[in-house]
Amino acid sequence: MTAPLVEMRDMVKSFGGIKAVDHVSIDLYPGEVVGVLGHNGAGKSVLMKMLSGALPRDGGEIYINGEKAEIDNPRDARNYKIETIYQYLALADNLDAASNLFLGRELISQTGFVDDALMEAETRKILARLNPNFRRFHTPVSGLSGGQRQSVAIARAVYFNAKILIMDEPTAALGVQETQMVAELIEQLKSEGIGILLIDHDIHQVKMLCDRANVMKNGQLVGTVKVDEVSEDDMLGMIIAGKCPPNAIPGPGALQNA
Ligand SMILES: Nc1ncnc2c1ncn2[C@@H]1O[C@H](COP(=O)(O)OP(=O)(O)O)[C@@H](O)[C@H]1O
Ligand SMILES: [Mg+2]
């Protein structure tokens, strides 16, 4: 057995008296899409922010490829090739695709200037791979569809060789067709061996896109399932009642004596 790409062990985070994440352990293998499900406030985003270095953790350990990782800030996370894509597409509206792709990480020519031509060429290359229909390279991203914006955000992560992609509700703001486009992108990244942690409240989508899913409730892990082995109702029962079906691996948050 190879070591997991990511293993979060016993992660803890409190805000005042609220245990936002309460001793949660989850893992992710290369080329795997692992869902994180749960009601609003369950602790999904806080758990992911501890992995991306956006929030300091109170307790727990993170292992990357079997080795203990020191992730204390977003820069550390990037060094481990962890990238995050948020629901509210964190792009600069007035800039075009290339400028967004390289924002804060601009390519510099040998003469010491920002190399716009090279950045555009690189942007064309990566978008040709991710979204061959993308044509609007000189449009501010505010003028793009939600799906096109999301492909720019994903290109940004992939260009910098993300091995671990955190997607926090990537389709929440998208229509049906755009959601389909993001689903196709996820399939493609998976086939390239990238591991994806997918936060999503759409059980149907999780069943389609994910290999395994973790359910959180009140900061605790209810359990982990292989999505092919459970029904949508099973997952709903975990989310709502904390009730694990027989083939789930129960966590500390599982309803006892179910
Ligand atoms: N920066 C913060 N400061 C204080 N409380 C927070 C902060 N971020 C999240 N919380 C609280 O932590 C809990 C888990 O939040 P979150 O992880 O965002 O939930 P979700 O599962 O909806 O993503 C909630 O009670 C939320 O109000
Ligand atoms: Mg959230």
The ordered H/E elements are EEEHEEHEHHHEHEHEEHE
Q: Could you tell me the mean pLDDT?
A: 92
CATH superfamily of the largest domain: P-loop containing nucleotide triphosphate hydrolases
Number of DSSP strands? 11
Instruction: Name the strands of the widest sheet in spatial order.
Output: 6-7-8-3-9-10-11
Tell me the major beta sheet: 7 strands, mixed
Instruction: Supply the number of helical segments.
Output: 8
CATH class of the largest domain: Alpha Beta
Tally of distinct domains: 2
CATH fold group of the largest domain = Rossmann fold
Helix content: 25-40%
Instruction: Tell me the CATH architecture of the largest domain.
Output: 3-Layer(aba) Sandwich
Task: Please supply descriptive tags for the structure shown above.
258 residues, alpha/beta, Rossmann fold, 2 domains, seven-stranded mixed sheet, four-stranded antiparallel sheet, globular, binds adenosine-5'-diphosphate, binds magnesium ion, ATP binding, transport, ATP hydrolysis activity, sugar transport, Monosaccharide ABC transporter ATP-binding protein (CUT2 family)
Molecular structure report:
- This protein has 258 residues and is α/β, with parallel strands linked by helices.
- It has eight helices and eleven strands.
- The radius of gyration is 19 Å and the shape is globular.
- A seven-stranded mixed beta sheet has the order 6-7-8-3-9-10-11, sandwiched between helices.
- The protein is 31% helix and 25% strand.
- It has two domains: 171 residues, Rossmann fold, CATH 3.40.50; 68 residues, no CATH class.
- The model has no long low-confidence stretch (mean pLDDT 92).
- Helix 6 links the parallel strand 7 and strand 8.
- The protein binds adenosine-5'-diphosphate (ADP) and magnesium ion.
- Adenosine-5'-diphosphate binds next to strand 2 and helix 1.
- Magnesium ion (MG) binds next to helix 1.
- One of its GO terms (molecular function) is ATP binding.
- It comes from Hoeflea halophila.
- Keywords: ATP-binding, Membrane, Nucleotide-binding, Repeat, Sugar transport, Transport.
- This is Monosaccharide ABC transporter ATP-binding protein (CUT2 family).
